[in-house]
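Morning run. Coffee first, then this:
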Amino acid sequence: MKKILFISIISIFMFSCSSNNEDATSDSSGSDKLPPLKIEVPAELQGNKNAEEIITTGEEMINKFSNTLEDIIKNNKNLIGKKQDDLSFMEQIQVGKIAVQIAASMAQFAPKFISLQTKIDNFKKGDISEEEAKAIDEVGKAFEQRMDEINKKYENLGK
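And here it is:
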């Protein structure tokens, strides 16, 4: 868990930065990555455009994040399991490069992320419909499920 947590923290921190990079943008088809996550729109939310948009956007972002994270894990196995204090200077530079790659990869989703974040902020304030709140909850459950899958897949890495 700590292995993935370090990379995830960097990823989430850099998520809304913008740049352009093709290295970490591959999809999961034809690879050893986890298959795309599909979030089903609950029957009671079907037809609610706002709720469906939240779920669709969340699904896209989770899959993009998952693919990027798996690319980073695959390409930086030498860093997995190391404590930050034990990284050499070159490894620290490599971590910085990873952060930039994540930011570049996620840049195309910045407008969608901002829109979703606004809805989440409104949810926290109570300024959101019950249907939108259920949609946000579905996305949250799906994100947690995907992080559990990634942690399980790579649990022995770095040991």
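The helical segments are 2-14, 49-75, 89-106, 110-125, 130-153. Good start to the day.
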